[in-house]
Amino acid sequence: MLLDDTPLFEPSLLTELDWESCKVGFSPPISPSQPGEGLLLRPLCTADFNRGYYKVLSQLTVAGDVTPEQFMKNFEHMKRTGDYYIIVVEDTQLGQIVATATLILEHKFIHSCAKRGRVEEVVVSSTCRGKQLGKLLVSTLTLLSKKLQCYKITLECSPHNVEFYKKFGYTASDESYMQCRFFE
Ligand code: 16G
User: Fold this and answer.
1) Which of 56, 58, 59, 61 is the best mutation target for the ligand 1 pocket, counting ligand atoms within 8 Å of the beta carbon and taking the most?
2) Across the chain, what does the average pLDDT equal?
3) I need a labelling partner for 63 at 20 to 30 A (CA). Which of 46, 54, 120, 166 fits?
């Protein structure tokens, strides 16, 4: 099984963001091109499977027991559609993924065939807290969704994270989030 460094999407999309228009401040200043000493912010690639990507995801929820083949299959599907923007932060010294977040584009017929962005799976490894990485990931994907012309961007989060997301311009909706679970 060939896991490699082919990016899920065009990496220049991240470096060409209008970072000046970012709504939150960073101290010390960091950005997608300079995420911090020894860190690299980039699109997901299949080789990240062996760089602890799943270990990070499992800090959010049940990540499951996934084979490289299953991972590759989903990655290829995501790349083909062009609607998945999964970013990771790599600790380049350790060669390990320490944070990740996902932007998914949903194509609508409403709003003149607009796109809606969804932010999913925002996780910073417990070993890498206090480096503003959560803020960096959410700011990056929020700006990216605007650049990709989404008419809105939404996310689901636990009540204790509501204040965190408000910093980026998100507001709690009047609509309820509902779900019907088939398995955990
Ligand atoms: C959180 C995540 C969501 C993820 C879910 C997993 C963010 C902003 N939200 O709601 O993306 O899918 O947790 O929980 O990261 P679950 O395993 O109960 O579905």
Assistant:
1) 61
2) 97
3) 166
C-alpha distances (whole Å) from 22 to each of 146, 168, 171 are 11, 8, 17
Q: Which residues line ligand 1 (CB under 6 A)?
A: 60-62, 119-122, 155-157
- Residue that is written with structure tokens 């490894």 in the block: 125
Helix residue ranges, H only, the chain:
12-15, 53-57, 68-81, 110-113, 133-147, 162-166
Q: What number of residues does the chain have? A: 184
pLDDT tens digits, one per residue of 93-114: 999 999 999 999 999 999 999 9
pTM: 0.97
- Give ∠ CA 54-73-104 in degrees, rounded to 5: 70
For residues 137-142, average pLDDT:
98
Check residue 61 and give left, alpha or beta (phi > 0: left; psi -120 to 50: alpha): beta
